Amino acid sequence: MTVVSVQSPGTVVLIRPHRFTPNSQTADDNTFQPLVDLSNLNEHHHTAHGEVTVVAETLRANGITVHLFEDEHEGRPDSVFPNNWFSTHAGGHIAVYPMRTPNRRTERRQDILELLKQNYRVQDVIDYSGLEFDGIYLEGTGAMVLDHVSRVAYVARSQRADPVALERFCTNFGYEPLVFDAVDDSGIPIYHTNVMMCVGTRFALIGLELMTSRDRRDEVVERLTSSGRTVIELSSAQIKEFCGNAIELEGDRGRILALSRRAFTALTERQRETLEESCRLVPVDVPTIELAGGSIRCMLAGIHLDRRRHQDRWPTSAPAPFSALGARQ
Q1: Which intervals of the chain are annotated as region Disordered (predicted)?
Q2: Do the domain assignments include residue 6?
Q3: Paired sense of beta strands 230-233 and 247-251, if any
Q4: Which element (helix H / strand E) includes 100?
Q5: Sign (positive/negative) of CA torsion 273, 276, 278, 281?
Q6: Nearest to 195 by CA among 240, 261, 139
């Protein structure tokens, strides 16, 4: 029997966009975001909407609870990536993050936070978004890859991961920061840590060759292996195929690794075999979403909160609140 892991949530928040398009405001530092012909936006809108629908259906078929929210707003091109603006943590804690680009700041949604408060035991919401006025940013579990077991926050240094915000988060939530420099083949800093690193219960996927300091690379490997994990090194080419942008989840038949079909194809047979020693691989096609420079991991905000009992949420004689918010559970 598989033991439930605190690393792997069994519930996620997923946003289905109706007006998806690659975000021109984020292209300056996101080298995973290719130049795209935007002459036929309706096609992007339609295909991205369908890809998210398939992701939701696939996860639910594997026993994952999916809170699916709709987004019909035209000014939120990256709303499909909610893990950047909030994260949840055991003990009933939620963090809300400062975002670098103005149009991403509008992704923060009170209805999502209210649904979490109504359905899960939430003790507090710590909102760091005010740091945006000082030019300080920390884009959630895109900027940080969190080891929930050993309480380590792995962070590739970038303009989306300010050390001031990182220190505040780690102090408030009880993580140790482990910061390193990582660049792509052109020497450009990796914009989000989660495109080059995935920490599961018994494994870690990581693009070690992107890290510029050998000493820091060795330290990261030591920290990961000392927690009992097998380190699976990804090449620079595999990182470009989003092999690092995966997430381990707890399904009804054990742990799964959700990743894109593109990433799955780029893994070697040996890497897949190693991963399958601890989880099932569940690939999903999201080629349109990946035009925005992120993949499956970026699309999923994991919920690490304890669910409320029904009687704790509202009296049985009263109607359930937020029935018109567009969230489908």
Answers
A1: 310-329
A2: no
A3: unpaired
A4: none
A5: positive
A6: 240
Residue 4 included in any domain: no
- The 3-class SS string of 209-253 reads HHECCHHHHHHHHHHHHHCCCEEEECCHHHHHCCCCCCEEEEEEC
Q: From CA 311, how far away is CA 74, in angstroms rounded?
A: 38
Is residue 248 in some structural domain?
Answer: yes
Q: Give the pLDDT confidence of 15-41 residue by residue, as tens digits.
A: 999 988 877 778 777 777 666 666 665
pTM of the predicted model as reported, rounded to 2 decimal places: 0.91
Asked whether the beta carbons of 32 and 96 are under 8 A apart, the reply is no
For the chain, what is the domain count?
1
Task: Please report, as a single letter, which amino acid is at residue 52.
Answer: V
Residue 1 lies in a domain: no
What angle (nearest 5°) sits at the alpha carbon of residue 212, between those of residues 210 and 214? 105
DSSP reduced 3-state for 273: helix
Once rounded to an integer, what is the mean pLDDT over residues 197-201? 98
CATH of the domain at 169: 3.75.10.10
In angstroms, the CA 120 to CA 11 distance is 11
Beta-bridged to residue 145, according to DSSP, are 154
Q: Tokens for 151?
A: 């309480």
192: containing domain: 11-328
